[in-house]
Design a protein that fits this description.
CATH architecture of the largest domain: Sandwich
CATH class of the largest domain: Mainly Beta
Number of domains: 2
Structural class: mainly beta
Low-confidence stretches: 12-29, 192-203
Bound molecules: calcium ion
Number of strands: 12
Helix content: 10-25%
Strand content: 35-45%
Mean pLDDT: 86
Amino acid sequence: MKTNPIQCLLLILFVIAFSNTNLIAQACGGGIDEDFSDCVLPSGWSVSSTVGAAVDNGFFFNQLDAPGGVGPSNFDGCVALMDDDFANNLGVACILTPVVDLTTYSSPDLIFDWQHEALAGGGNFLVDVWDGANWVNVFFADDDSDGNDETVGLDIYANTDFQVRFCYDDEGGFQWGAAVDNVVVTGATENSVPTCDADGGRF
Ligand SMILES: [Ca+2]
Ligand SMILES: [Ca+2]
Ligand SMILES: [Ca+2]
Ligand SMILES: [Ca+2]
């Protein structure tokens, strides 16, 4: 069959439209992808503290790393910081991600860069995930340490109300603190049309 130029053009337009749809799906379907580059508490995120710390008073989203040292090499621009050195007011403090329905993902992972500044082991940095019934600890740092691309497989925690919390326990003392950057919850999507928000796919 001979193809005329109009059929050819329609075919090309169809291919372009289909490709773009796939690109948008890949860019927006990743659950959480947060680099804190707006330097404020991101939309949908929240904080908690047992002794009263709040955003700009213990929690900071406009700093480059935690007090007492420098962050790992992947830290870039603003990070999410829990700073006991600011006012000694963290107690057990957490920064919580938005809730994500993980049941639509296959082989989901949590990936993050982190910094824990500790003098003589003071303070602990913890990462917990909500498994649908309980918070489950998936990462723990007792002493001074940091790392890039820490990866936690999330398959066994998948549920409709999945959530991550990054926590700092000052162990009852006056400590430095901990920070995270480049927080990603990602995985291939199954049978779902991703929804994208206006600012480029972040929750
Ligand atoms: Ca950043
Ligand atoms: Ca250090
Ligand atoms: Ca404290
Ligand atoms: Ca400790």
